[in-house]
């Protein structure tokens, strides 16, 4: 299944030509295409900043239709463990979305294919300790050895709503902080420094 999604992410230009040659989909395939389009169209694209996040969003929508994927394999008379056949199905679904001009998919596809300026997302796990205000907010966590690490809260991120009010209930809770390294100018230090910007926080 992951290979199918990877193929979609890498082959958006190919899908544009495939869509024109695509035969009419069967009932299950059309239902899956419509359901997938509805899911993608409900995504908040303003919160998807790079191809990695775009691919994850597509994967979440795709995997949410697992029952239909099984039914589609049966409709196509292929086995679920036949990776080549499942890749063709995945490519066909992508072509269907393009052919019926699913607006959400067209916009997401641009982000899926855009690798320019992409920053690697990493994650760190630790116990929540506090929020430091140094012009911007920094969320501080501590690992098992007690070593503290701070992460810059620069923009809205997935899970940020949990930290906008009182955070006493989160004290010492285990967090998974997803972050990307960026370079910013710090006026008080009169220079550029690399900081870890938060992209998401999950309470474990």
Structure in words:
This protein has 204 residues and is an alpha+beta fold. The chain folds into 2 domains: 2-113, no CATH class; 122-203, OB fold (Dihydrolipoamide Acetyltransferase, E2P) (Beta Barrel), CATH 2.40.50. The chain has 7 helices and 5 strands; from the N terminus they run H-H-H-H-H-H-H-E-E-E-E-E. It has helices at 2-10, 12-21, 27-41, 51-63, 66-75, 83-99, 103-113, and strands at 122-134, 136-142, 148-153, 174-186, 191-203. Strands 3-2-1-4-5 form a 5-stranded antiparallel beta sheet, with no helix packed on it. Helix 1 packs across helix 4. The longest helix is centred in the middle third of the chain and has 17 residues, at 83-99. The protein is elongated. It starts with a helix and ends with a strand.
Salient structural properties:
204 residues, alpha+beta, OB fold (Dihydrolipoamide Acetyltransferase, E2P), 2 domains, 5-stranded antiparallel β-sheet, disordered N terminus
Order of helices and strands: HHHHHHHEEEEE
Adjacency order of strands in the biggest sheet: 3-2-1-4-5
Number of domains: 2
Alpha carbon gap, first and last residue: 27 Å
Beta-strand residue percentage: 25-35%
Low-confidence stretches: 1-22
Let me know the average pLDDT. Answer: 82
Query: Portion of residues in helices?
Result: 40-55%
Number of helices: 7
**Approximate shape:** elongated
Biggest sheet descriptor? 5 strands, antiparallel
How many DSSP-defined strands? 5
Structural class based on helices, strands and sheet pairing: alpha+beta
Radius of gyration: 21 Å
């Amino acid at each position: 299944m992951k290979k199918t999604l990877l193929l979609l992410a890498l082959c958006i230009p190919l899908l544009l030509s495939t869509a024109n040659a695509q035969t009419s989909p069967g009932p299950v395939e059309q239902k899956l295409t419509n359901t997938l389009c509805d899911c993608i169209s409900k995504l908040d694209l303003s919160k998807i900043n790079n191809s990695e996040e775009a691919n994850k969003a597509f994967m979440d929508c795709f995997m949410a239709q697992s029952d239909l994927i099984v039914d589609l394999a049966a409709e196509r008379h292929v086995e679920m463990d036949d990776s080549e056949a499942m890749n063709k199905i995945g490519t066909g679904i992508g072509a269907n979305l393009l052919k019926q001009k699913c607006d959400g998919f067209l916009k997401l596809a641009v982000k899926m294919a855009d690798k320019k300026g992409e920053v690697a997302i990493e994650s760190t796990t630790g116990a929540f300790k506090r929020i430091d205000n140094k012009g911007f907010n920094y969320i501080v966590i501590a690992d098992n050895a007690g070593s503290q690490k701070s992460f810059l809260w620069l923009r809205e991120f997935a899970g940020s709503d949990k930290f906008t009010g009182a955070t006493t209930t989160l004290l010492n809770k285990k967090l998974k902080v997803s972050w990307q390294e960026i370079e910013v100018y710090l006026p008080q230090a009169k220079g550029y420094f690399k900081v870890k910007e938060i992209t998401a926080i999950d309470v474990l």
